[in-house]
Please model this.
Amino acid sequence: MILTLPACGDAPKAPSMPPSPGSPPSTSAYAASASASVSGSGAATLGKDAPDPNAPSWTEQDYYNQVLDWTSCSDGEQCAKITVPMNWADPGGQRIQLAMARIVSTDKSVKHLGSLLTNPGGPGASGVDFLSYMPMLLSQDVVDSYDLVSWDTRGVGESVPVKCYDDTQLNQFFDYWPKSFDDAGLAEMTKVDQDFAAACKQNTGPVLQYVDSESTAKDMDVMRAALGDQKLNYVGFSYGTFLGQLYAEDFPTKVGRMILDGVVDPADSSDQDGYNQAVAFENEARTFVKWCETKYAKSCPFKGNVDKGMNTIKSVFDAAGAKPLKTDYTGRKLSLTDAVTGVIEAMYDTSMWEDLADAIDSAAEDSDGTQLMDLADEYYDRDSDGKFKDNMIEAFDAISCLDSPTDASRANMDAWAAKLKQGAPVLGQYFSYGQGLCGNWPYPATFTPHAIAANGAAPIMVVGTTGDPATPYQQAVKVAGQLASGFLVTYKGEGHTALGNNTCINDTAGAFLVKGTVPAKGTTC
Model:
């Protein structure tokens, strides 16, 4: 299938975190005790002003008055469910439950500052699974001062999850690549997209229409109230920066201390966002080739200049496209899309570059796709037997299609394909003609791209990484200027997102979150 990048990237990686974005170990104890559901009854407990959880309908205020019932789940965390309306335009209608988790600060020697809500990105990454890694990404004074809280957004993980295909069907969908992009090829691709969208609608149910990010931003304010906080303190990574901006736009006076790391520009169309990513991934791939030739020379498969190295990568794609490559996994061969996905996965984090160099060497010299398949499996959060561990990619598609209008006309797709070929000669074609899925989605988009100012919000820290391939640095520059109270902090480095990768960044973020200290203009780490 045409490459669909979790968008805005996935969960950020700490040095000791598994290399797959958004794929910490599953919290099975949590899943057993706090699975979400769609129902007419809520998850609130009775207390002062709390709504009757069995009442046939709730008012909007009832959602704000609910009391969370926290229970121990796994690894010292606490879990709960929170009730929100399925459709925020009809709060008295059907209700859904979202899964939450928190790590309570136990340090009594410092001032407690309430809760710090976090989102790992995607869209589609599980915040509940990600939470245990948050202490690795923050300075110790932040961990001591806040209860760390995250959640599975609507449509994700344990929160009324989007479900489209079984594992076999999903792998076939991802492996699909048209023989050409002529009229016949596009017609075939349109049918593939339509079938997938129809399956999502049938297997997910009515909540599929309401997994949009605008609704999630409203959910966040209910969480703030249920957590007992007057202001929302928040750290959003990647797609989570989009949620933070939406929240600041809808509830500017409720913004507390907010950090946006790896920034999505809400003013960009989906076409422009895809172009920005393609160019950034192409540039990062070139950086990888140069690194390989100079820092990994003894084992590097590239010989000569960077252009020749990129041609070697292209030759692997061409070989996999002509005939899927063998792997060590029974019944599995490396398709063209898996090969591209494996390369893309390694661009998120330089810790994977040695693995990628070895993988390309094996594919180019021995027609062995095993190591590239390993990287693709990490990207998709998929086991070596082809089984998916979560619904991240399905949720990504569902949320993304509701978050941005899409022009799937032949003229528009051809125009962007030409731009992509010019801006990203090797990788650009795999970002082309991807508008068909959202163009055939069963529900219209709910968000129109526009710059967000969030007038009246407290200062918002915007963190950009100069070599970020998934959320290019210039997006952080733009968003910091668009937000009325935004200020930019720059990390000069490679990879997706900055927190947890640099002491200077963490100290700057820690001073802001704990003391409210806004760093000097132009701060660069």
Summary: Strands lie at 38-39, 71-72, 78-85, 95-103, 115-119, 147-151, 232-237, 255-261, 460-467, 486-494. Residues 6-46 have pLDDT under 50 and may be disordered. The longest strand covers residues 95-103.
